[in-house]
Structure formats: structure tokens, C-alpha cells
Amino acid sequence: MNNKFDALKDDDSGDHDQNEDSGSPKECEKEKNEEEEKDQNKRKTAVPGAGEHPLQYNYTFWYSRRTPGRPASSQSYEQNIKQIGSFASVEQFWRFYSHMTRPGDLTGHSDFHLFKEGIKPMWEDDANKSGGKWIIRLRKGLASRCWENLILAMLGEQFMVGEEICGAVVSVRFQEDIISIWNKTASDQATTARIRDTLRRVLNLPPNTIMEYKTHTDSIKAWEDFHGLVNASGGR
Amino acid sequence: MIGSLLYYVLFPLTRFVHSVSAKRAKHGLVKESPSVLMNGSEVWDGGGAALQVHSEEQTTSLEQWHSAGGVPQEQAEEEEKGRDIQEEDRERVTTTQESQSEEVGDGQKKEEAVVGEQKCGSDEEILRETKGKEMQEVGSPVAEGNRKREWTEEEEEEGGAKQSEEFRMVQAQGSEEDLQQKGGPSEPGPKQGAPAGSGGSDQGAGSAEADLSEQQQGISSSVLDLGALLSETNVQPWENFAQPLYTGWHFPTGSGLGEVVHCPSWQFSGMSYYPQQEMTTFEVVWRVWENLSEPHTESEPDQGAGLGPQEPFKFTVMSYNILAQDLLEANRELYQHCAPEVLAWEFRFQNILREFVKWDPDILCLQEVQENHYNEQLHPALSDMGYVCVYKRRTGTKTDGCAICFRRARFSQLSLRVVEYCRPQMEMLDRDNVGLVLLLQPISLQGSEVTMLGSPLCVANTHLLFNPRRGDVKLAQLAILLAEIDLIVKSLPLKGAGCPIVLCGDFNSVPNMPLYNFITTSQLYYHGMPAWMISGQEDLCYKMHPRRLFAPLWPSTLGITDTCQYVSDHRIDRQESGKILYDHKFLLGLRFCEAALIRPEHLELIPGVTDVTPDKPEEQPHIRRFRNTIRHGLNLRSAYSHFNSDTNRLEVTTLHADFGATVDYIFYSTRPGGTGHLQHGGLKLLGRLALLSQEDLWPMNGLPNEIFSSDHLCLLAKFQLDPDHV
């Protein structure tokens, strides 16, 4: 039954294991051992709180912003990307999402990434290295709505491509915004076609929108060409 | 302590208020009083207007009453404060009332406090007066207020000041009528109470016959009153669905008003023509079985159903509010017309058992089952009769509850949901009512061999809040029950498609009023409707500022949608792949749930990125999604028609000194539309035990009587499972 603790529930991962025996971990006072929990939180995976709606996978929000004036490099990319937090349930997702700026309101050259827990939003990650992404370029003003639709479809497992989805990115640029969804196997055309069709449906895109699939190996190459790097050990 | 002291003052006060206004209701129709016109069209309007008038004389009589009652003026003024305390002490009402009854019964006036004495005195006075006079006022709407524990006189929307004003007005009205009536008990003070009461009795008996034809005049003309009443209440939407089918209008118009004035005289003629001794000749079998199936189908209710796997599965369901003894004791004034012997629990229990044996239902849904009686008597007795029983006591300090019992030879229990409506943190759902939802598998038991027959059956039983003013609470309680039914049914394969449903109980609502219509038509446009109108137990349209219903009807934290389903079970799909799928709408629906509004503990504050405060949920679309119409997905129909077309009389399922109406039901699921072939998940109604009318019952001295030992009648219906599922 509901009780007043529900409203105060701390659904934030971490403390679940140690309290599992009590059967209602969410009713424990969250103040206690806060420091300790914080440490655990870094290492432990997110779990859904009692009564929450679990997601098929846990996800992590990331945020990155290019420092103006400095040449992008693999290192600076990794330094600039910041983990915001992980979640395991619908409720936990909204807790992050509703405290985050909408992509359309972000300033500068910045990105939100939402990837399955354990997958870094980088081409080099094991899950990504043979993968690719669908890219949709959006005129200004559409990013917030499209991003929300995209990630809700991803969290709700609407793409129906098994474990293929890795994550999604929204990139705020100068004159346009770009959203993309990453999958594991770029060569699996059935999967990529299915993702494209689902994207069309869930994003409710204007008919003339151009969708482009790009493998990460191509992306790496293009990036290297652009930056004149020949023997980069990966990176962007 | 202070609370209970104050209560001692307040209870007789409010009791008197109600009895006096009941008087008004009665006289309003019977007499050619200046404030109330007899042509029907202004009966209630006029009555309402007259309430406003209070002359000096009337005020004087109020003061007189105060001094006669020995209540210090300050005490009376403290009424306002007392209201609040009384509300808080709602739980204690029952016990307090109980102790009152005991006091009165013993005839001992304990000299504990002036207040206590006053209470006792006026209580006795009312008892005596009731015998002679109030008894006539059966069905009067306001006197109803005395009935039953859970109604706490709550006046949340009206301040205490308004309450006392109302009291004055009613008092004024009462004395005005008393003057006209001459011999009547003009002052309700303890000293005058007894003689005046007996005087009223004589007069009542004498004039009853004479008044009869006049009253009937009032009945027929009051039917025409519908338009005036509707415009009076100023609720346009209501007109759309509450069709003025006059047979169903127990209240506020049509035969409903008829009943208000009708029963007293019937009662009296009954008392004069049918002395108590004669009543023992009646037997329970006096109620008639109505066969509704085709002629070739066997119809006896107690001849079990077909046992062969080919034959359709037939079963009977009884719904019976057996009147908890604690509640009887606490509301003794409602049973003044009864001989003390017929009110004794042992006597009633034997009678009720006899009814169970006589009708031998396969499923028994009981309400007002007192816990100790259940444990010590009912459960053992029913077990011996071959029933498996589940019981749920009401929450809080209530001693009664609901039970479902089923024949272990005919059903096996698949699952059970015990439903408490109480949500202490929600103002509107802090009531202690409960329900039970049971999933039963029809079986055939031959020796030790058990054969499953047909699809599972869902049986729900409840007793909704009584308070006639809080239709909003009743609807929310019903929504919880419907959501529980939805949940239990969906646990079946194919999401329970085809699972028939029987929903029965005491709904404390009369037919063809909004709550009833919601059940039977699957939707209700409630926006702006006054809360009292939902159940239709009483006509409170004279109230100036009634509580009204607006969206959302219940808080979103209840987790129930406007389609009466749990949010968490809404649109979740677990496909064969085992994946947890959520569609866009479902995810959005959780966006502003409380758990989702808290800032994640470890979320780093990055200016311009993670420094957003969530918008207030009130402004958000998922709240707006709670529409002005509530719906449910069950296709339910009442097993009874509430009106006997042969006798042209309204059926009643409950009757006591204040009130007679249909409030108990057996609803069953049917196929949506179409005839002939049975519906997927539908039940076919084969027959039912005919109900009685007030006119039948008052000659038997009303209820409870020597044969029917509750203030409700039992309902019994026979159904056939859809043969497609056999």
C-alpha cells in the first residue's frame, strides 16, 4: 500500500543491495550514510525503486561541450564529456530529464548523450566499434521535441531490434541540430532499416527530412582526414 | 475527553435538527402550509425558501430549547469548535453512540456531567418522540443523517457558523409547523417530550388514513416536478444522462417523493391492521423466485447447475447486508419500530442462517459482517454448510466488514484481492470502507476428482461509504474497486478476455442516479455535479453551496486513471521476447509523478545544463488528461430492474425508520449489445429472487422483522456461464 514515504522515496540506485533484506529499501532514511552511498553509487549499477516501472536496460546520461578555441582531440573529447547519472526505471529517468535543460535551450557547441549503462558514447567503445548511427539534421527549434521522442522510444524498447541499440545523441550546433541513434552492427541492414522506419514513425518528421546512416569507421576516417591525423590511435 | 463531552452535546442537537427537518419534509407534502405548495411544482423549492425565514418568535423558541435542555449558552456556541473535534473523532462515533444506547437502555442517568445528563435526557425524549411521531417520517431525507456511523456530519465546505445557522433555520421551521399542528411536541425539551410525543402519535395514527389520498395526489403531481428540480439545481450536464424515467427516480422526484410521504401512513395502517402476532405466519419462502430464462430451462434456484462438462455452468449469487449488531446498537433510533426481540443478534443470526439454507447460494457476498460474529458463528456455520469464506474487516476501529463465501464443491479460489479504500494521506479517501475481489474457477467435484469447468469468474463485493453528501468519495472508492477488478482479471491468460464479472454489494446509491449510471453505462460526465447527487440517497438541492465535482476526481497519486485502471498496468506490454515495452504516452504519464520530481541526489549542478526545476504538475498535460468523464471497461448490468411492473411498485433493498430504497445490487457482465448468442465474457441471467416494495414490507412492520432479520433484503440471482467457455 501507498504510504507517505512514497513521496519521499529515494529511488537513486546505490542503497538497494544493502537493504534488500528489509524488503522495502525505499523506506529507509536517505540521510543515513550519505557519504558511503555516494561512493557506492559511483560503482554500483542503478536499480529501480520499489513500485517503480523498470526499464529493459539501465541508461546513463552524458553531457559534452567543446571548449571554444582549442583543437578537438581524442583526449579533450574524453575530458569534456561528463557523466550526469544513471537510471533503471521510468521514474528515475524523469528525475534526471526534468532537471536537465532541453536541448533546444542549450548554448554553444554541446551534446547530450544517452547510452546504455556501461557503453561509453565513443566510437572506440567495444559496443560501438563495429557499429554506426542514423543521423538526422534538424533545423533550429525542433531538437527538444525530437530528442524527447527519440529517447522515449529507445527507453520503451520501441525499436524492436533486440540488443542492437547502444544509445542516442543530440548535438546542438551553430545553425542546426543533429540527433542520432547508435547501433552495434553497422552491417546488419535489416536492423538499420528497422531503426530508420521506427525513427520516421516516432519522430513524426517532416517528409523531406534527410536521414543518413554512417558507420563509425567512416566517421573516424572522416574525422582523421579533417584533422590531418594519419596515425591517431582512435579518437575523434 | 473534551471531544467526547462536546459530542454529548452535539449529538442530540444534530439529531434534533434532523428530526425537525424531517418533520418539515413530511408536512411539506401533507399539509397546505404557507411555505410549501401542494401542487407539486413548488414542493421543495418552497420548502427551501421557507428555511430562510426565522421570526423573533422562532428564535425565542430556540432559546427556550436551549435552556430547557440545560445546555449553557457557551456550550452551544462551542458547537463550532466541536464540529472540528467531532470530525476528528469520527472514529469514536460508533463507540460513543453505543454507550449512549446502553445508558438509555439501562435507564440509568449517570450524573457525571451536566452535559452528559442533558444528552441522556434529550436522547430519551427523542426516543419517545420517535415512537409516536418520527416513525412516520420514513424516507425523509434529512433525518437520514442520523443513520450510521460513517457519516460524520462533515461540513468541510461549510463552516461551523453556517452549521449553526442551519440549525436555527431548521429549528424555526420545526416550531412553525408545531404551531400549526397544535397538539404536536412544540418544544423538544426533556420535560415536555414524553407527553407531547404520545400526542403526536395519536394524531399521526388518526390522520394517517385521511392523509393518504392527499399524499398520493402529491406523488403523482410531484412527477411533473422534474423540470423545476433540474433547473433548481442548475446542472445542465446532468440532464443529459439522468433520463427522467420516473420509475427509477427514487429521488428527488417521482415516486421517490411519494415514498417519503407514503410510508408513514402505510406503516400506521400496517400497525393497526396487522398486529404483531400475525406476523409469525410469514415464512422466508414468501419471497418469489422469478424465472427469466427460456421455458425449457429448469429454473429452481436450489437445483444446482449442470455438472456435466457439456452443460453450461449455472450458479447462484446472493448479496446480503446483514446489519452488523454494533451498528444496530449505535443507531437504535432507526429501529424503534421493531420489537426488541427481533433485534437481538442470536435471533437475527438464526433467521439469516435460515435464509442461507433456504436459498442455498453458490456464492454469498455479505456486508456488515461483524468480525467477532464472523469468527465465532458465521464462519463455522458456513464452513459446515460447505462454503469457503474470505473476510475483510473495515479499516480503522470499525468492527464490521465484507465477506465472500463460495461452495467448495463448485468453485476453487484462483486469487484474492483485499481492497482497502482508505488512503490516510488523501483527504477524500480517508474512509474505512473495504471490498473483496475474488477470482474463482468453476469446478465439478465428483468424489476426489476435480474437473475444471469453463472460464474463471471474477466476484467482487463491497460496501461503499454511506454519507449521502459525499458522492465524490463513493465514486473514488468504486474506481479503486474497478481498478482492482481490472487488475485481477488481467492476470489471467489473454488478459482475462472472456472472464465474466459479478459485482455486488451495498453501494449506498439509488438506481438511475449518477453512480448507478456510471456502473451500468460505463461512463459518467461528472463535471460540476453536486456531490450529493451522485448517490441520490437524499435530495440536498436546497443546499446553497453544495460540494461539486471537478476534474481530477481523485488525486493522481492514487495511481488510477480516469478509465478506472491502475496507471502501472496501463499500456505495459510484456511481449514474448520478455522485453519491457512502454509506449510514448505511458512514459509521458509518469513524467510528473511524485517520484519523478525529486532532484537526483548525485546530480551535479552544471549551470545551463542541469539547473532546471521541474514544472509544477498541476500545469502539466498528464493532469489535464484526467477528463471530465470517467469510464470503465466492464459491461455491467443490474440483475434487478428496481421496479416491479406487475405491481407498479418500486423495489427496496433496505428499509428502516428513516429510509427505504434500493441501494444493494448484483451487477453482472454482459456482452456489449446484441441479443441471442452469449457474449464473450458475458453471463446470462436465468432468474432472481423477487424483491419487495415498501408497501409489502410495512405491513410486516418494516425491517428488520420476525422473518427478515436485517434492515436490508437479500438479493439472489442465478446466472449461466457463457457456453463458449465451457
Principal-axes geometry of chain B comes out as: globular
Helix count of chain B equals: 23
Q: In angstroms, what separates the terminal alpha carbons of chain B?
A: 61 Å
Class computed from helices, strands and strand pairing of chain B: alpha+beta
Radius of gyration of chain B from the CA trace?
27 Å
Average residue pLDDT of chain A: 77
Give the termini distance of chain A in whole angstroms: 51 Å
The assembly state of the depicted protein chains is heterodimer
* Mean of residue pLDDT values of chain B: 69
Structural commentary:
The complex is a heterodimer of chains A (236) and B (726). Chain A is globular, with a radius of gyration of 19 Å. Chain A has 236 residues and is α+β, with helices and mostly antiparallel strands. Chain A is 31% helix and 24% strand. Chain A has eight helices and seven strands. By secondary structure, chain B is α+β, with helices and mostly antiparallel strands. In chain B, helix 1 runs parallel beside helix 7, helix 5 crosses helix 8 and helix 7 packs across helix 9. Classes of the chains: A alpha+beta (236), B alpha+beta (726). Chains A and B meet through helix 1, helix 3, strand 1, strand 2 and helix 5 of A and strand 13, helix 20 and helix 21 of B. Chain B: This is Endonuclease/exonuclease/phosphatase domain-containing protein. Chain B: It comes from Anguilla anguilla. Chain B: One of its GO terms (molecular function) is 3'-5'-RNA exonuclease activity.
